Amino acid sequence: MQTQSYDDIALVAATSLPYARRSEREAPWFIGRTFAGLIETAGLQKEDIDGLAIASFTLAPDSVVSMTEYLGISPGWLEQIPMGGASGPVAARRGARAVQAGDARIVACIGGDTADSNTFTNLIENFSRFSTDAVYPYGAGGPNTVFAMITRNYMEKYGAKREDFGRICVAQRQNALAAGTAIFNKPLSMDDYMAARPVSEPLHLFDCVMPVAGADGFLVMTVERAESLGLPYATILAAGERHNAWFEDDVHFRGGWGLYRDEMYEAANIGPGDIDFLQTYDDYPVITMLQMEDLGFCEKGRAAEFVRDNPLTWNGGGLPHNTSGGQLSMGQAGAAGGFLGTVEAIRQLTAGGLSAPELPNQVAGARTGMASGYGMVNYDRCLCASAIILARGNQ
Amino acid sequence: MSDKSRPPVNRSRLWRHVNAAAAEGVFKLQVCDACHKVQYPPREFCSGCLSDALTWEPVSAGGTALSWTRSHSSVSRFFKDKLPLHVGIIKLDCGPVLFAHLSMDSLQTGARVQIMGRPDKSGQTVFFARPADTGTADEFSMIIKE
Ligand SMILES: [Zn+2]
Description:
heterodimer; A: alpha/beta; Peroxisomal Thiolase, Chain A, domain 1; 2 domains; 18% strand; B: mainly beta; 5-stranded mixed β-barrel; 8 strands; globular; binds zinc ion
């Protein structure tokens, strides 16, 4: 059975707050400023928003419910998405279905988090029962410990070298410099990458994302409404999610994407070769490689070769990848990290349309793009794998 | 706030059974009465057949290192002056995958190890993995409670 299409749905108003290394502000501020940015960009009043989907780690003890009171709105549809790095594509799916069903007319989707010297420690200390009992006591290294294991296994299993991971990081820094919005705004050479200090071997400094504060969001509405509002939009060609896939694997080397990618490409009526850019969830470069493989850009175990042969820069003539610089250059703003790729994809596919200016890192002629998400280390791997294929709308 | 004198102390309610087994000097994990699947980390019901009849039973402490890391960073003040630390994931012969402090002699994928549970300086049990022919835990004295 094929899933219902998203043909009549528009994603608009890609909005990002500038990320900061730390902030005295609380999570509601980040979500609230993004909400204000969304309605301003779309020329709407706050009362026009009747659906709200939020992803945040630092919003507790508040929730999406509390946000309605902060925002002074009374929506008829709410969703909180506890999927961290997978939340962007999932929010778009949830919002789209609500609009298609008539449960909401305009859904604001926002991922946002604050960061100070304690938020990251508090988060990883109590991330899940399995993690508190059976991972955190082993050095309190956080996700670095888990992904170091996954990275070493991948290197030994498939022959990937540190330089291969470095290609991803170096290309993303070039993208970040072009985009001009990243916290890490100094050029990164392969020599810099290789000379970095070890963090949790085989991971070194530039393999790891820095926790930061920030937020990203977008609006979901019908194509008809976007056109009547005169807004440039992206359409959803297909989307999918899968959770706790391949749980019988002793070490994580593949994610849930591979279980639905064929259906997704079939629904989109295109193949990976037709995708003009890819935004992966880059908490660690090995996870980007898993996405390239499981989403069909190369065979399983061949991503190292793929990144050797394909320039990943926005204008390199290969597969433009993480065109804003990704989390490896922007930092990881909690659950906003799960929105970053989706929001950059919408931005790429709406820039230059109607009155919207081109981006400094505009992928020339991009008609379709993919964003994928990955989130929630419950024990020894992330469990949520999401993806969405978007196309340029009305321009 | 993290404590310089103690490793992380928080555990779920079920961890008391792990502490009790370690006090006896026995490696016990939850085994499903219905389908015999061995479970780790601790949980309330079997992830195979969903039975909630799980019994803490002695199981084989043998295992094989699947992967490992030498860690140079920690958010815990206790660990910060003990870096680098060696941590591995171990495929237990009885089924589950378990994180453990890993012996220097075992820093190799495929290394055969024996798991040992001991109270750490917070009094909570942590697992150590060392070669099967080494009975001593001396290497881990900075973490184990005297
Ligand atoms: Zn069972």
